[in-house]
Amino acid sequence: MEGCCDLEVDVNGEEVFMVHKKILMSFSSLFSKLFGNLKGTARNLKVVFNEFPGGAKGFELMARFCYDNGRTMITPSNMFLLNCAAHFLEMDGNGSSRHSLIDQTEKSLKGINFWTWSELLEALKQCQNLLPATKSSVMLQCILDCLIERIALPSIASPYTCSSDSSSFQFSCDTSIDSLKSSSSQLTWWFEDLLFLNVDLIDKLIKTMVSLKVNHATIYKFLFYYHKSRCIGAATAEKRKITEVVISLLSLLDRSSLSCKGLFEIYRVALGLRISKFYKNNLESLMGSQLDQATIDYLLAPSPHKRAYFYDVNLVLRLVQAFLLEGGSLSFTSRLKKVTKLLDSYLVEVAPDSHLKPSKFTALVLLLPDYARASYDRVYRAMDLFLEVHAGLCEEEKRSVCCALNHEKLSEEVLKDLSRNSKFPSQTVQMALITQQSMIKCSLPDTHHLLTFCDSLFCSNTKENLGKEDSETKKLRADLQGMHWKMMGLEKVCGTMQTEMANIMRSRLSILGNARSVPKLCS
């Protein structure tokens, strides 16, 4: 290149090239603009490029194209480098498509369906090295479309095995690594091959996958694998960027394709990285949508730094609220039952925490609508533990804790225990006794009208018929009389219960009256 050279080109401070300006001007509109108006034989001309795509290597490939009269070998490994250099130098051939490096590189994409998988990856690596110059490139989009088509093709396990002619496109077999990939999973064989992509290309790749309707569950698995693999050994700033981009991409997927376990794992990583509140809220929304898949271990996250309570109750409050926003689907009722069971187990776990405030505990109980619980037995157990640990609560605070307890959905055994539980406020105990009495009355059949009916029936018969009363009638009459006496006996029991309730209330009032000089213990 040094013969008859009259132009010095400094490329990004990497290397200086001595070239003939007329040769470059015949292919580059940019050089024509720079030197086309120069008269005479100006010497010692110099051009400095600070952001030339591909650096010295890119400029050398472009110069060889010019010196070879517009001919060069274009391959998947240099196509994007030549294309970026051509756009930078405006190498449109000055009106001649035959001499246009831009046209030649773009036309070479016509054979992309015959590229091997390795050639596609090599081209992607080159695109990545040239970012942001190729970020919005039509050529980049073309290679991504082809790559995704290979990934989504159902007739093959991986492109490392030969495809049949029945496929929508043909491509060569990469026999050099055939033995390594022949046993790969049909859905995930490509995961490891794309780990080299940075977050900018991953963002573009996944968005293209979503637009082409690639299976969302597969996309989720790849994003989880990518996040886990790329965060190993990465600096904090890089981990944060990877995590935020992955969260943003997960938000594009159908919620049913997500895994609760994977989302919680990403969340644990995100907490240590202090990601922005926007991405944290997005991730919590995704976690909440899959809360029916969670186990109690997922929810027992430690409290934030410098907080006295043991577990992050505020997180659970947010997750359940996010889950409730998902309501409306046909399966929501069955999913709600699972979340209710999970939350009741969580209540029992956090209740013994002496630092948990009554307001937070009550908020957890009231979080779900009443219809979601078929039984309040576990809620009662949680309240019992909470009141035992928080023995210093005043009567008003105890009532606020117990206000959400639905006595009608308590079992007979729990009601019996509650009616004798001194840790609960008197109003709650009184309601338990009233509910017990009501349940007993409702469970008894009304037999009095049956006995009256039978008596009138028997009295209407003649004296002769009275002596001929068959055995079945006698048995029915005896059963009805027995049920009647049983009802009368239980009514006496109810009366006794009312008496006991009154005695308990008088006892409690007596204690409270004698203790007026002692200040109430309020937390």
Number of strands: 3
What coarse outline follows from CA principal-axis ratios? elongated
Number of helices: 24
Kindly state the percentage of residues in helix: 55-70%
In the predicted model, the low-confidence regions spanning at least 5 consecutive residues are 161-184, 457-469, 511-523
Largest sheet: 3 strands, mixed
Give the percentage of residues in beta strands: under 5%
Q: What's the pLDDT, averaged over the residues?
A: 81
Give the radius of gyration: 40 Å
Q: What class would the helix/strand composition place it in?
A: mainly alpha
Order of helices and strands: EEHHEHHHHHHHHHHHHHHHHHHHHHH
How many angstroms does the end-to-end distance come to?
87 Å
Strand order of the largest sheet: 2-1-3
InterPro entries: BTB/POZ_dom, NPH3/RPT2-like, NPH3_dom, SKP1/BTB/POZ_sf
Domain BTB: 5-75
Organism: Castanea mollissima
Pathway: Protein modification; protein ubiquitination
Structure overview:
This protein has 523 residues and is mainly alpha-helical. Among the domains are: 295-443; 446-458 and 472-523, no CATH class. The protein is 57% helix and 3% strand. It has a three-stranded mixed sheet. β1 and β2 form a beta hairpin. α20 packs antiparallel against α21 (426-443). 28% of the residues are buried. InterPro entries: BTB/POZ_dom, NPH3/RPT2-like, NPH3_dom, SKP1/BTB/POZ_sf. Belongs to the NPH3 family. It comes from Castanea mollissima. Residues 5-75 form the BTB domain.
